[in-house]
Amino acid sequence: MPYDVPRDRIDDAADAPADAFMGASCPIGKFMFLNEPDHLVLKRRFYRSLVTFCPPKVVIGGTSPRLESVSIWFPPGVDHSEDVDPDPFTKTDLSDPRIMERMQAVNDVIDALTKNLGQEPQWYLHLAAVRPQSVDRGYASLLVRPVLTRAAREEFPCTLITQTRENVRTYEHWGFEVVKEMAVPGSREKFCSVRKD
Hints:
The protein is of the alpha+beta class and 197 residues long. It is 39% helix and 20% strand.
């Protein structure tokens, strides 16, 4: 990993997925916060929480201290049961009560796909986020390849859940295979579980 993000920089690291996923490249955010007047504020808060709620045992990497991109890997034996604050929202945060239902629908799909990845020890890529100004510079590869090498040496599979076809193609390029695809009820969005043995 080019830069191990220290725990005291978690808040800085949380800005990377917020910056990376705020645009059209992450349609699930648009689906979840549809018709919400404060959708930009809430999306940013949601994407930041993907970093801030992670348990202390995760491996958080960046491309440099500037954090142009960030990855979070759950090592074998660590899962979301140790999350610090797994639910960043309450109904009072949202003007549309259906948002909680849409968020639950997304969580249900992700939970089902996670169970489908298997229960054996594995390296799980929670997220890889590249800030818009740093796209197409090979930063994602800098954050993913070292763990793929380590996992192969330790004989652990690597797994993740992703959303867009473009992401699936990227992971297939690194040797991952799609395990299962599931649609989010009430939307056109789909998620895929992928795995590299």
